[in-house]
Amino acid sequence: MVEDVTNVLDDSGLQRILAVMAHPDDVDFGCAGSVAGWTDQGIEVVYLMVTDGDAGGFDDGVTRAEMAALRREEQRAAAKCVGVTDVRFLGYPDGRVEATLDLRRDIARVIRQVRPDRVLMPSPERNYERIYPSHPDHRAVGAAALDAVYPDARNPYAFPELLADEGLEAWTAREVWLSGGPVVNHYVDITEHFDRKVSALRAHASQTAHMGEELPNMLRGWLSGNAAAAGFGDGRLAEGFQVVDTA
């Protein structure tokens, strides 16, 4: 069930969706319930993680290289919980991401490879009411990914080496969904996919194992608040986004 509070592409007309996120587990906290619904409809979803999450975790006995490898495997396992098999990593340093031209080119490359109808990304804006989604890496990835959607990926003269050297034709993604920002204009009811969202997050054991039952309880608090804002009714759970028309 989707609340049509803004002009949103009909899922039935979509073939591919690309989620561009800063760290392993970002997509699962923000969007995994929606992703599960899309893959159930037969839409191909691809994940692109800008970092390997090497600055995460709580164990001083694990090297940063080991943590990066662990978190890549956790993200692949989490993706399978919601029907995603194509998970890509750019390997930028966790905690030091900037919205550079290099990052814009690397994201534009994947947009041209995947050719998605819709692109998910973190909001580039700081959310002062709920600060945790506004990690600097999130905002930097959101800014770079939005620029990669418009104008970079669609302009054959932006990063011309992508076409000349790699044969990647320009591609226009028709819609962007921003997660974690201060503005929400669209909600997706994920009540039936909540358990899969929890399973995806539990797959990130290095980040969530210590939370126990606090994890689903915390999620229910956030998601029920979203559902109430959307007017979905008692007992419903929802993820919220700012949808931007980029056609």
Automatic annotation (TrEMBL):
Taxonomic superkingdom: Bacteria
Pfam family, one: PIG-L
Transmembrane domains' residue ranges: none
Record's keyword annotation contains Zinc: yes
Keyword terms of this UniProt record: Zinc
Name by which UniProt lists this protein: PIG-L family deacetylase
Source organism (scientific name): Actinomadura violacea
Highest classification ranks of the organism: Bacteria, Bacillati, Actinomycetota, Actinomycetes, Streptosporangiales
